[in-house]
Amino acid sequence: MGVKKKKETQVAALTICHQDIETLRSFADVEGKNLASLLLSCVQLTDGLSQIQCIKQIVPLLVKVNKNGLCDPTIQSSLDIIAGIYLSLSLKNPLKKVLASSLNGLPEFFLTEAIHSFTSRLQKELNTTDLYSYRKVIDNISSCMENFNLGTASINNLLKNVLHFLQKSLIEILEENRKFAGNHIVQTRLMNDLLVGIRVSMVLVQKVQGFQGNLWKASGSPIWQTMCGLLNIFTKFLSDDDLLQTIHSTSGLAIILFIKTMFHPSEKIPDLVSSLLLRSVDCTSIPEWFLSSCRSLCCADISESALLFLCQGTLAMLDWQDGSMGQSGEALLLDTAHVLFTLNSQIKESTLEMFLSRILASWTNSAIHVLKSSSPSLKDNLNGNSSIVGRLLEYVYTHWEHPLDALRHQTKIIFKNLLEMHQLTMEGAELVTDPFFLELTEGLLQLEWHIKGKYICLSCLVECIGIERILAVDKTIPSQILEVMGDQSLVPYASDLLETMFKNHNSHLKSRTVDGIWIDKWHEIWVSPLLLILCEGNLDQKSYVIDYYLPKLLNYSPESLRYMVKILQTSIDAKTGQEQSFPSLGYCNSRGALGALMACLRIARAHGHLQSATDTWENLVSSARIKQGLIHQHCQVRLDTLGLLCESNRSTEIVSTEEMQWIQFFITYNLNSQSPGVRQQICSLLKKLFCRIQESSQVLYKLEQSKSKHEPKNELTKQHPSVSLQQYKNFMTSICNSLFEALFPGSSYSTRFSALTILVAIAEVFPVLEGKFLIIFGEIIFFLSRHMLFFYILLYLKFQFCCLFFRFIWEVLFLAYNSYLYIIKFASKGQKAKKLFCSHLPNCCYFKIVPNLFFKF
Length: 857
Description:
Layout: H1 18-27, H2 35-44, H3 48-55, H4 58-63, H5 73-88, H6 94-103, H7 111-126, H8 134-144, H9 149-157, H10 159-179, H11 184-207, H12 222-238, H13 245-262, H14 269-277, H15 288-293, H16 304-317, H17 326-346, H18 350-371, H19 376-381, H20 387-399, H21 405-426, H22 435-446, H23 452-465, H24 468-473, H25 477-483, H26 491-512, H27 518-526, H28 528-536, H29 539-556, H30 560-573, H31 592-606, H32 613-619, H33 623-630, H34 635-646, H35 657-670, H36 676-705, H37 721-741, H38 749-765, E1 768-769, E2 772-777, E3 780-785, H39 786-825, H40 830-839, H41 849-856
Antiparallel strand pairs: 1-2, 2-3
């Protein structure tokens, strides 16, 4: 496997016009130490990364200049060129952010001159009349307001011009978009420019200090007139069906933001917005500027989508924290909910349904903020027994199995928030005995377990009121959930719910009990049903429980492994017919308690919950039990036991002597597996073991080379590294001998196939050098001659087909030997020889492995 080359960062180099270059040359000093020289050397570089380093030197150089440098034309011209460089860079160019970050540290006595330079350059940008340059100017306006002091100051100085440019650009881009009706590529780009323009207008209103006063609110003010024009544009965008829905959505946000910024007095804003949402605007009581800017919003025939996005803007742009809008804000919150419920019954388009679900979730968030400092009347309207909460629950029940994942996620947020809303209205009442929570719990538990939404809502309910109340209703809930884990579509939901439940129960019991007795109760409720499924459940149940639930349980409570091992060991030892915690393993076709034990240990070791292999064999499970698993009649028990020996969360963990002995024992009895799938898994697991040997041998070699001979013991191994390396050598030699011996004439197809496949795996893991099959463990090297391997393969071919294909076999021998020499001499042409060699072999499955193995060695 090749090493993935790290992708180099590409930064486009900055360039300036010829006139600016000549200016820098005229001011550059002979020594090359002033600002003009630095900029000149920077623009002459062709590598953007190198230019970044130059840019970072600008401010340190200016710090060294005293205040007298303000009158220096070199500084003034250089600052002007720096402003031009900043505005010429694209928004995504890292140079732009680096330059802004550097200039934020500009000495105070240079700020006035620098702001003047940036203001002057930005003014020229705003005067452009090229429609296809508008996007670049809009991006520059955006970047100036993004953590850039000089840019923000320049925007403040040019606020009137910036607003006018945004108004002009939005109008002209919209007109251009209409001209290209039918040209979707151009229209997409233009509408994206419109979207960016709207967002920049909103950021401008939110960030620029010029809007904090009241002078601009005079009706004759140019800024006020431009703001009214922009508000009118957003209103048109909201109802223009030819535009993208994202533009509609953003326009709804912008309209409410501009109303919030422009309308006076602010105390009447909730009433105005409420009348817009309810389509009941009194045109005689609103200002003329609002009527002229938002006339279409004051009509009763406003579209459903426009109303939906106005609700979104209301919830996102108004201040709901701390009850700052008072009772009129509370009334607006309730009116918004009723409008959303009405739209829910009218909207059929899937994208609008998605928007509606998000807006409803946003409404519940706003309701939580308001409830934290609300009046008693609002709490009555938003408690669990209110009509609004009832309709929210109805929405959740209707959409919790919606085909869209994102919409189902929103129903979870809504349900979780309405539980918190009810909590805020309880005023100190006990959660567990609250009628709303009791009724909700019983209602959910009565539903069928095949309903996916039930799991999500129960999970939220457990987080809110705890697991004790649910277990009080029915203690068999964990067993019921585990029973449905045979259905693959329900497994993720069931395992997530179980995880939430057992974590909550663990925390609850731990906080209520001083001694450690509580853990027995916890094991009885959450671990015992799991073990029952592993012993008695059907194949799908066992597989999904092992893959999804068992790792989560062990990750949260690793100490539960000893409880599992104790119970399962007792069950294995119990005789058939005796009274026991779990049915004994008495059927050859059943995995039983032994299979459950090996599965638990395998998962625990793979996730790092076993301290060491030696500790496992000495304290958890005996050697006899391991051997019993390695030759069990059920194939999955054998695979789990082998996986326990081969898999580890640490790729460099030392393979113990016991493990090597058991692997040899396994290979002796399991090469003749009749299932192709089992053979494949055996080879895969053994390859993991070989990788551990290969990587841990490197660690052992480094230990040996680092003078560890003088240390009696090491943390990684209880014996000297050279001893472990010698054991590795002996083990691999024994394994290879066993595999070659399995290729004797007359051996079964499955035995030959397994042996050859494992040999291929060995050849892939360990390096091959200079014609020898080498396995390198530092200085300890053992090898098997390539000629010996060649002899084994051809000997097998000779005896297998000598009766019918004697002459053909010897032709293969001659051709193979010459191909072998050909490879040694011309390594680059090895593939050609390989194809030639393969073409003369019989068309049998295991013969496809032989050439692969041959060419590995």
